[in-house]
Amino acid sequence: MPTTLKSLCTDNHNPFKLTLQAGANSFRNAISWCYVFEDEYLVRYLHGSELVVTTCVQQQNDPGWLMHIVELLADHKAAGIIVNTGDYIEEVPQDVLDYCDEKELPLLTMPWEITSRIWSAPSVLPSSMRHMIVSFMTMPCGMP
After folding, report:
1. pLDDT tens sequence for the chain (144 residues)
2. Torsion angle of the four alpha carbons 27, 88, 91, 44, in this order, in degrees rounded to the nearest 10
3. Chain centre to alpha carbon of residue 81
4. CATH, domain 21-137, list 3.40.50, 3.40.1390, 3.40.1130, 1.10.3470
5. DSSP for 6-36?
C-alpha cells in the first residue's frame, strides 16, 4: 500500500503533528518520493507525486518565495508540500493557502520542534517513507 498524505497524518497517531491547511480535495494523494526543498533548484527533478518538505528559510529574504514554490509544485503535479512552521515562517500566508486550494495542492504544516524528533527517532516514519528519505539523503549530490 503506497504512502499517502493522509496516512502521514493518521498512522502512528500523527507523530509529525501535521495539520492540513489547504488542498483538502487531494489529501489522499500517493507519495512517490520525498524532497527537502529550500530553493527552486530541485524542481527540475520533479516528475509528479513527490512530497516536498521546506523550512521556508528563503522566505526571510523574499516574502514571495513560498508562493513561487507552490506555483512550481502545482505545475509539476507534486503530491503536496509540508511547511515547517515556527522558525523561518510563523504561518502560511492566506494567498498561498488560497492558491493551493484552487490548484488542489495539499499544503500541510508541521511545527518546528518536530524536525529534530524526525532525525533523532526515524522509527516514527512509515517504513516506505523512511526508505524514501534514507535513499534521498544517501544519494550522491546532484543525482535524484
Report:
1. 678 888 888 876 777 888 999 999 998 888 888 888 888 888 888 999 999 999 898 888 889 999 999 999 999 999 999 999 988 999 999 999 999 999 999 999 999 888 656 555 555 555 555 555 544 443 333 333
2. -30
3. 3
4. 3.40.1390
5. HHHHHGGG-TT--EEEE-GGGTT-B-SEEEE
Closest CA to 52 of 75, 87, 63: 75
pTM of the complete model: 0.81
Q: In what helix (H) or strand (E) does residue 85 lie, and over which residues does it extend?
A: strand 80-85
Q: What single-letter amino acid sits at 62?
A: D
Residues near 112 by Cβ (< 8 Å), separated by ≥ 6? 84, 85, 86, 87
Comparing CA positions, the residue from 11, 29, 6, 4 lying closest to residue 105 is 29
CA–CA dist 75, 44 (Å, integer)? 11
